């Protein structure tokens, strides 16, 4: 993986010539966003309505940095930290939303029983389903930083927290109170909340705040995102294994925030694969982009996702939800192509939403695999033979000669 910025190239370009190939200079874009909100955040004492939102860092574990995120705005601020509402927003919009959320940082032990009043306030904030009027006092004026992360949405300005207080009662559902107070394992708690209709971002917040599980601990936000999406995905995988297979080859496609998502469903028993390419000029792209991938069969994975990380769990969950709704199973290949339009990483939520929208946007159903692959090839930029060469599922089918002799006779059509 290349570095995010090339200092020599940036010095020559100065954000004007776009020598990196991106349509927007990510350095200048973040500077513009910071200047846009600077006056509103240039103070140590802030009062506003938290969306609600919290963040738990991973560095220093088991001593972690945790804090509430509070904007200098009162009222309905839920859109500032709700990816479900960002479907029609641009990357610039999202960077602006996140820049308004000031994080007051404090250090806490992951064992929540050892922490004090401020953590208790943060936990109450995490359980709320509506914005909560909050007050934070910082040691100094917040410093604006946006670090690239493929997991969580960007974090805006932050500073050391001296005090935090909720100035109104949070709206906490009875079912949340029940799950938090009951003796449930984390997986049981996650699935109970999910099946009751709570969205996963709310569940992620509860897990991060140390409210779920038998041995309640703070969980870094990045880990919580993966843990919740992986837990729900594994449960859905086991469920759909009892469903009949689809009847045709199905192709779906959607482009979202500079990411292209093509999904191939095959009329065979469940397996899942994500193939991902960061094209030249994209955020983490290189001069010679390569395909990375991860795979599982009906047994699921026994270890960590090695190459595609959080993108894997986000993409898998969206496809599994669509199959569960239909009462069907399929063999799944997801193609993710990241273009230069994706100039700032905004978190795996965009993969979750992008694949979900793709599953709502069918290209067509096909009786032959070659027809389905042709439909996908037309929508992607990276040489298609490189996808085929890297794919475990498609390569396995070729080796087993279950392509109706197609690969042997027609592979050249996809590599032209």
TrEMBL record:
InterPro entries: Nre, Nre_C, Nre_N. Residues 19-284 form the Archaeal Nre N-terminal domain. Keywords: DNA damage, DNA repair. Involved in DNA damage repair. The keyword Ribosomal protein does not apply. This is DNA repair protein. One of its GO terms (biological process) is DNA repair. PANTHER family: DNA REPAIR PROTEIN. Belongs to the Nre family. Residues 296-406 form the Archaeal Nre C-terminal domain. It comes from Thermococcus piezophilus.
């Amino acid at each position: 993986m290349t570095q995010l910025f090339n200092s020599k190239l940036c010095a020559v370009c100065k954000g004007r010539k776009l020598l990196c190939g991106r349509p927007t200079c990510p350095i200048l874009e973040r500077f513009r966003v910071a200047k846009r909100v600077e006056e509103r955040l240039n103070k140590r004492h802030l009062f506003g309505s938290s969306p609600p939102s919290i963040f738990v860092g991973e560095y220093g574990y088991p001593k972690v940095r945790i804090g509430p995120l509070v904007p200098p705005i009162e009222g309905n601020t839920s859109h500032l930290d709700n990816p479900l509402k960002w479907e029609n927003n641009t990357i610039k919009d999202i960077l602006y939303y996140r820049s308004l959320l000031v994080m007051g940082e404090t250090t806490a032990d992951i064992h929540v029983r050892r922490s004090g009043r401020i953590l208790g306030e943060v936990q109450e904030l995490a359980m709320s389903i509506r914005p909560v009027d909050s007050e934070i006092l910082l040691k100094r004026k917040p410093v604006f930083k946006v670090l690239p992360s493929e997991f969580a949405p960007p974090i805006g300005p932050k500073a050391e927290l001296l005090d935090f207080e909720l100035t109104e009662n949070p709206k906490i559902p009875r079912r949340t109170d029940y799950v938090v107070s009951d003796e449930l394992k984390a997986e049981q708690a996650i699935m109970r909340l999910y099946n009751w209709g709570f969205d996963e971002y709310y569940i992620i917040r509860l897990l991060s705040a140390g409210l779920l599980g038998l041995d309640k601990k703070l969980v870094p936000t990045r880990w919580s995102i993966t843990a919740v999406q992986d837990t729900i995905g594994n449960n859905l995988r086991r469920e759909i294994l009892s469903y009949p297979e689809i009847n045709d080859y199905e192709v779906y496609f959607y482009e979202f925030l500079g990411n292209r998502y093509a999904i191939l469903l095959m009329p065979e028993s469940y397996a899942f694969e994500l193939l991902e390419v960061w094209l030249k000029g994209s955020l983490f792209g290189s001069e010679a982009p390569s395909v990375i991938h991860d795979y599982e069969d009906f047994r699921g994975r026994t270890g960590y996702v090695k190459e595609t990380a959080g993108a894997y769990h986000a993409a898998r969950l969206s496809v599994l939800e669509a199959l569960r709704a239909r009462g069907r199973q399929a063999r799944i290949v997801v193609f993710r192509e990241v273009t230069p339009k994706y100039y700032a990483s905004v978190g795996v939520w965009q993969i979750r939403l992008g694949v979900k929208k793709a599953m709502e946007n069918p290209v067509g159903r096909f009786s032959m695999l070659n027809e389905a692959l042709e439909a996908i090839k037309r929508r992607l930029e990276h040489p298609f033979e490189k996808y085929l060469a890297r794919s475990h599922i498609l390569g396995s089918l070729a080796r087993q000669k279950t392509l109706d002799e197609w690969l042997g006779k027609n592979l050249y059509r996809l590599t032209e």
